[in-house]
């Protein structure tokens, strides 16, 4: 038994080294390319394209998420239907081409179109990462791994200002500094997209670098999840089940996970209350409120984990992964609109709206936990404790009565 545990830990470390660096860099690069806009705006983009008006610039930022909404489901279903490695490599090359075309934009309308299509193509990266984590890791391992690749969004924001400050200092040549930023980013992304053809993880059976014994152990680990293997057939029944599943809608719109997420909502609610009620003169308390609002990240990471660990059936899992980031896009569209300029400088109405959203999240997380706990108790009573199913059976969590929800 001890030897098996050591072999299992050794295999998990090997999976981590094979998957995590590639997914972390891919997600960080995607976030880097998306976020160049704010730095390019400082180095001449707004003046060159005549979008100095605050509302125009806001729409250039927001339209990315409209594209994200459009692209999330189609690309997620492509990743479910075809080899994940191929889909991720292709979309990375395409989004690199969109980035490389950005310096050619000469008008506000052209930039809007460019940003919309960037959102469409980049929409597949996050759901693909969720699918990969769900395929390779057990339920107990998934949240930590999801938090690792997602945290690279913050990592890219630490590095990108330094790189783009240097590029912004370029004064020679026929291009503006912001155009160099996009050309360098696009070239790097294009090169990485080509590399992903060989680097990005494929299915358990086809990814190179694992021995026959390790592959057998990989399949045994999947068995522990009671979620079956990757299946390339789109199953309409699983689509209908996902659309009618209350858990799907709770994850999509509440972005919350049970007790951990309910707890993470409380500091955000307190932070909004401080910013709403404290007078402007109490700067220390208001700064504390801003810090407390950032606790939402811990809730979001748990939600990403829910999208893979609490669902079975490959088509349904792909829909859950996409739905999670549809909710993400909606939040990024609605959120800025809550902070209308007419509420400046305190934006009390915006913080009230944000507080209401997280109160709803808190309640939904607790209700979802109660519903899933009741379902687990019902299954234990009617079907007994968990047992393994055949790993080739692509059953949903509703069809597989051995499945138990993580709460």
UniProtKB/TrEMBL annotation:
What is the name listed in the Swiss-Prot or TrEMBL entry for this protein?
A: Major facilitator superfamily domain-containing protein
What superkingdom does the record give?
A: Eukaryota
For this protein, the parts annotated as crossing the membrane are: 57-79, 86-110, 116-136, 148-168, 180-200, 258-276, 288-306, 318-339, 351-372
Please name the InterPro entries in this protein's record. Answer: MFS, MFS_trans_sf
Gene3D superfamilies on file: MFS general substrate transporter like domains
Q: How does it sit in the membrane?
A: Multi-pass membrane protein
The entry's localization annotation reads: Membrane
Protein keywords: Membrane, Transmembrane, Transmembrane helix, Transport
Output a single Gene Ontology CC term carried by this record: membrane
Provide the species name.
Aspergillus avenaceus
A Gene Ontology MF term for this entry?
transmembrane transporter activity
Listed PANTHER family: PERMEASE-RELATED (PTHR43791), TRANSPORTER, PUTATIVE (AFU_ORTHOLOGUE AFUA_1G17530)-RELATED (PTHR43791:SF74)
